[in-house]
Design a protein that fits this description.
Elements: E1 20-21, E2 27-29, E3 52-57, H1 63-79, E4 85-89, H2 98-110, E5 115-118, H3 127-135, E6 140-143, E7 157-160, H4 163-178, E8 183-189, H5 194-207, E9 213-220, H6 225-238, E10 245-248, H7 251-264, E11 270-272, H8 278-286, E12 291-294, H9 297-312, E13 321-323, E14 326-330
Parallel strand pairs: 3-4, 3-5, 5-6, 6-7, 7-13, 8-9, 8-10, 10-11
Antiparallel strand pairs: 1-2, 2-14, 12-14
Helix pairs in contact: 1-9, 4-5, 6-7
Length: 346
């Protein structure tokens, strides 16, 4: 479809909500101010003996969490290195490996780690682990978790970004870029759960009442590139000539869709992602992808470790929710993105 990219500004001013325009014209937001009160069941701040032993467990390893880890390591370097924070990283083998993650956390609790940090696909299933950690005085920090998921009474802080708001920014982008032209949209979802729900409901809120944009297929693709490609191949078979735009709710799925589209020799289909991974950055630079939303993964890891240090070393209270700014990047501005935001810098 390849319509002009960017925002007209005045046309969407009434729809921005908590979002705003940067000086570059990019759409950005930290989301509405979160309001989560402390429950009194969180372990108190402490001044632990150095180095503190910190467990880090994501839902599974992928590009996003590689970048989060780069940010965590950057913070550790700035704080003085391994003599201050001894970081232990362990992840389930897949996004659905909640049993493995429970075993990881239980081991850390038994070994009296100073702090546990985690992103989990099933907050409710992990509740007994949170409680066991809290009863032993081990603070638990969440990261990359939708605020709506942060309902357990034991966690100290949720560090990340507003996933509903990031989805809403993409919806606003689609509304502004394609809303004046009849457009058939395909959505590649992740696995069922709060992450998926938050991103999708945010997108639909941003899209709002836009009759010209019709969602002709919305199917799960498991957050991974290979499934994104296979699901997109099936959708192309069902809709060989009437797809204008594809949104992958994680860049890896969007890149899988891109591979399927190129494999079929299909043309005129715009690809939208979510997360701004290095491969998505490269695809936008080449003109193969059109837009993504950066979710500040490195900053997330950095903020996480700084909050852990404040709480468990300095003995200081930290905010219950720590959100970073999310920013939309497209072919018109991607050259300005600093790729040091992907890696640990010595």
């Amino acid at each position: 479809m390849a319509l002009g990219l960017g925002f007209a500004g005045a046309a969407m001013a009434g729809d921005l909500g908590a979002a705003y325009k940067l000086d570059t014209g990019q759409l950005a937001s930290k989301g509405p101010s979160p309001e989560l009160a402390r429950t009194g069941q969180e372990p108190a701040p402490k001044q632990a003996e150095l180095p503190i032993k910190v467990g880090f467990t994501p839902t599974a390893m992928n590009t996003h969490y590689d970048i989060v880890i780069a940010g965590a390591k950057q913070a550790i370097k700035d704080l003085g290195g391994e003599s201050v924070i001894d970081l232990h990283i362990q992840a389930p083998t897949s996004q659905s490996g909640i049993g493995q993650q429970m075993n990881i956390v239980e081991t850390w609790v038994q070994r009296n780690y100073d702090v546990i940090t985690m992103a989990t696909a099933n907050d409710q299933a992990m509740m007994p682990m949170y409680e066991r950690a809290a009863k032993k005085g081990i603070p638990v920090f969440m990261f990359n978790m939708p605020t709506a998921m942060s309902t357990n009474p034991f966690f100290v802080s949720n560090v990340g970004y507003d996933q509903h708001e990031a989805g809403r920014l993409i919806g606003l982008y689609v509304k502004e870029t394609y809303g004046d032209t009849p457009t058939n949209l395909v959505i590649l979802e992740g696995l069922p759960g709060v992450h998926n729900t938050q991103r999708l409901t945010g997108f639909k809120e941003g899209l709002g009442d836009t009759p010209n944009v019709k969602i002709i297929a919305s199917q799960p693709a498991g957050w991974v590139r290979s499934e994104g490609q296979s699901v997109m191949e099936n959708i192309l078979t069902a809709h060989p000539d009437d797809i204008d735009v594809v949104w992958g709710m994680y860049d890896e799925m969007a890149l899988g869709a891109l591979a399927a589209i190129k494999g079929r020799g299909a043309e005129g289909i715009d690809i939208i992602g979510y997360d701004n991974t290095p491969d998505a950055y490269d695809a936008i630079k080449r003109g193969d992808m059109h837009v993504t939303v950066d979710t500040a993964a490195k900053e997330m890891g950095y903020n996480l470790i700084m909050a852990v240090h404040d709480y468990a070393v300095k003995g200081q209270m930290v905010d219950k929710v720590i959100n970073s700014e999310v920013v939309v990047w497209d072919g018109g501005n991607i050259d300005a993105f600093d790729t040091d935001n992907y890696v640990f810098v010595e």
